[in-house]
Amino acid sequence: MAKILSFSREDRMYGIIADFLQHERRFSGCRTVVNKVYFNLLKGWRIDVAGLIEKKNNYIIAVEAKKDISPESILQAISQGEMYQKTCNEVYIALPSDEIDNFKKENKTEWENIVDLCRVKGIGIIRVGTQWQDCRILNEAMRIPRYDNLYREIVNQLNFETLESFQGFEEHDFDYFIGIADEKAAVLKKKIQLLIEKIRHSMLSKPRDFPAIDPRKLVAELPLKGFRRDFCWFFVAEVGREKVAYVPHFTFHVDQEGVSCMLSLQTIRTTDKFVEKLRNQRDDFLDALKRLRDVSEEYKLKIWEQVPKKGRRSQMPWRSMYSFNVGYIDEDVVELILSKLASIRYPVVRVLCPPVKRDDSRLYTNEIAEKCTDWIKELQEIYKFLS
User: What's the pTM value of the predicted model, to 2 decimals?
Assistant: First the structure.
């Protein structure tokens, strides 16, 4: 009689194993990824089921599944498991329950040898039933010293694959911008994109908090060239990336220092309009600044000069020229601002919010997303004046 397998394909075990890791008490808080985390030591290898326990200092579990038990399949599973031990904290091979029972019945000594070999090599064994509740660990894996550089690579893959919502940054995320955490690029970019989505959602869900912006036109995104080696930036505006430079818009910077926000005017069209309104509606501008000052006196108005390079404005370097604390801007300072703007051929004007720096705990929780939204809310009066 032909042998009937409980799992006709190994990949049908993956979901059950993943659920088991998520529910097993010793792996509390485990997030799992199925057949996506690749293993660079051997081309084409992917870990069948990988788990990450963030609260245990990024503890990694790797599971290699086999649908049947034979000398070839067991030796292959142990060989792969030994490779996984170079990057993971615990490594298991997973075998179907009925396969184990049938094999033990006919090959008791051989099964004991398999268990002993796995124990000696520090590889655990998981018994897999047809649902996660029927799974159990037959023997636990030993924690083996790992290769740190390969381990960090696997951690970043797991973080990327399991990241579903923005919950804050990590301290070492910002090391990417000083060249000592290159492997963080993909995870960091995904976190920023999730942060953008959270900001957009907050604004769309409470449009009355943002009276100067039409929620139906809201665009918030990280441009194709917005993610750079030394910093990255994204914008919130009422137009897309092709036109964002030609209207007042909110620009967010993430760099080695932390996160900051500014209201930007960066073309002649927008700065000329600002100058005209400043001349004709000065009181409105000062009133808007007073409301901003009531929130924080750390807001600044800064002016840059763009210097054309070979006649191409797209390649203009920016040179910081003047900075004014909003707490000290009055009638006389407005006159000074107008005179300075008149002396610059290609000016850029920005209202800068007080930044959130790396020593601020808000960066590492969802509070930074709330702060980004608050910055836009606090700048509504100025935005309305500039628009």
Answer: 0.78
